[in-house]
């Protein structure tokens, strides 16, 4: 994450969720992240229909596009000609993982701006895969922002944030020591990785 807004929201989200996969939507206190609200997004997810709708968009996010984005499809951030960004939503909802995407956006005059999108899973009334929290932050301050709205964007980079929560599962079998300094198995997602020797 390059943008300070992304890092601050991610730290807040991490603190709220604790050992859980994701915090509850009701636990988000706007007053605690008031300096991030203008760049924030909340999405409503419909996994069956493969749709994501913007339920809440901050004032700076709406200003970038020159319109109110509440109720708009999430794909509106990319524009009508862009490929469907559902894969980003699917990673967040299905795998309960955060995603950071770099977007290269253009306005009505063809001028470009770089954006950073952070998307994090939320639970809503005990249910997963129904909400996501995020920020859309502008890199720099182009002189035309607020005058000419963004109309198109391409995903320039995509990174899945590592899970820091302990994974559930059966306890690992004791490892046979192969020499001094053997660190033991390390859990990576749903896999258990053992240190290897030289061949």
The CATH homology group name: PAS domain
CATH architectural label: 2-Layer Sandwich
- Please state the overall shape, judged from the principal axes of the Cα atoms: globular
Beta content comes to 25-35%
Write structural notes for this entry.
- With 199 residues, this protein is α+β, with helices and mostly antiparallel strands.
- The protein has a single domain (4-160), classed as 2-Layer Sandwich (Beta-Lactamase).
- The chain is built from 3 helices and 8 strands; from the N terminus they run αββααββββββ.
- The strands form 2 sheets. Strands 2-1-5-4-3-6 form a 6-stranded antiparallel β-sheet. The chain has a two-stranded antiparallel sheet with strand order 7-8.
- The relative contact order is 0.19.
Notable features of this structure?
single chain; 199 residues; alpha+beta; Beta-Lactamase; six-stranded antiparallel beta sheet; two-stranded antiparallel sheet; 3 helices; globular
């Amino acid at each position: 994450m390059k943008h300070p807004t992304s890092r601050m929201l991610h730290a807040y989200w991490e603190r709220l969720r604790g050992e859980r996969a994701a915090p509850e939507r009701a636990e988000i206190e706007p007053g605690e992240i008031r300096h991030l609200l203008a760049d924030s997004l909340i999405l409503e997810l419909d996994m069956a229909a493969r749709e994501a709708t913007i339920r809440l968009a901050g004032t700076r996010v709406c200003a970038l596009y020159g319109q109110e984005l509440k109720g708009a499809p999430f794909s509106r951030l990319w524009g009508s000609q862009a490929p469907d960004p559902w894969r980003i939503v699917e990673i967040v909802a299905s795998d309960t993982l955060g995603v950071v995407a770099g977007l290269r956006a253009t306005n009505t005059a063809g001028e470009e701006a770089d954006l950073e999108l952070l998307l994090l899973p939320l639970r809503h009334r005990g249910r997963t895969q129904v909400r996501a929290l995020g920020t859309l932050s502008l890199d720099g301050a182009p002189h035309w922002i607020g005058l000419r709205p963004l109309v198109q964007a391409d995903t320039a980079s995509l990174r899945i944030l590592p899970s820091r929560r302990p994974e559930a599962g059966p306890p690992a079998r004791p490892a046979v020591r192969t020499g001094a300094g053997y660190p033991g198995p390390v859990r990576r997602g749903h896999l258990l990785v053992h240190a290897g020797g030289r061949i």
